[in-house]
Queue: 2 jobs
Job 1
Amino acid sequence: MINLFNAGLAVYLGALVSAVVFLMSSRRLFDIIANVLMSAGALMQTIYIGIRWSEAGRAPFSNMFESLVLFAWSVAVIYLVLRLQRNIPWLGAAAAAFSSLALAHASTYETAIKPLMPALQSNWLTFHVLTCFLGYGGFAVAFLIGIGFLASDRKASTVKPAMRETLDSVMSRTISFGFLFLTLGILTGAVWANSAWGTYWSWDPKETWSLITWFIYAIFLHCRFMRNWSGRRAAWIAILGFLSVLFTYFGVNFLLSGLHSYAT
């Protein structure tokens, strides 16, 4: 099974190389190869997750290794869905790089399947973690687009206005998608917490930072739709929000102790 994991990582790296060659040469063939490889990588990851799920007898979302695999998969899938609707030439390279880094980092953790601690032995695990990471995937893609927007803003004279409008629109859509699934993740987590610990909310560090992240993106959506914020301000909020996501995901696990410490 680990061979399938390694193959997925290799395919994402191949997609990254192909996407970079396309950006440097503008040869359409390399863009096609990059997207075929991204699709193959996402498929391999889907099969890998399915096999691990079958062998474990549970959703494989319970530790850092498994969650990083899920993170890489969510970014690849969200990118591929976007690619069917919009053509942002450099986004394929960025998504391939992100998924490759996530899997490379996952490979540094133990891959053995272990029994779940009692608090995690619930069907809510699947709904809670899957919705959260679909949200994280949306935010990650928005973060990549936000960086791209700021980079294009520095070269406004050489970037077509239509492309800047596309970046702004897609960034808003991916954040809306991520916000929906993060909200579902927080709600399912609250229900799960009540069944496991007898309370819907305990101000655990992970819960607190998830709420902080939720508020950052809520501010983004409020300013976007009520005050018509766009452009640089929106891009900076997208970047700030993802930094909060990263702290919620990594920082809380390794720097703060709480009910979610099992994630380490």
Job 2
Amino acid sequence: MAAIAETATAWAPRVRSILRIMTGLLFLQHGTSKYLGFPQSQMTGVDPTSLGGIAGMFELVGGVLIVIGLFTRPVAFLLSGLMAAAYWIAHAPGGFFPLLNGGELAALYCFVFLYFACAGAGPWSVDATRGKA
């Protein structure tokens, strides 16, 4: 058991980097759908001045920065706030439970980004190469 714990501890920073990259890629697709039309969704072609359009710009730019791990802490903090606002504006009025109001993803992104704001990008990032991870 001790060997497993030591291995898990040794891999934890790298797994944090993998979690950051995957979270960024999944988040980025919301912005690419809204502004680049890929993948096609109900949000494709959103008005850039609407709340969804403004969020799309954060998703696009913030998603890229999270994927590469550049300015991770401040960007993640900003995106955590964006997702908290998205939850309370778009989902919470639909009911208390995230499962029922469609807000599970917004809530999860909020707390994952909050984690990155506190924990940093991990070793596989631009921030790490700059000594800022």
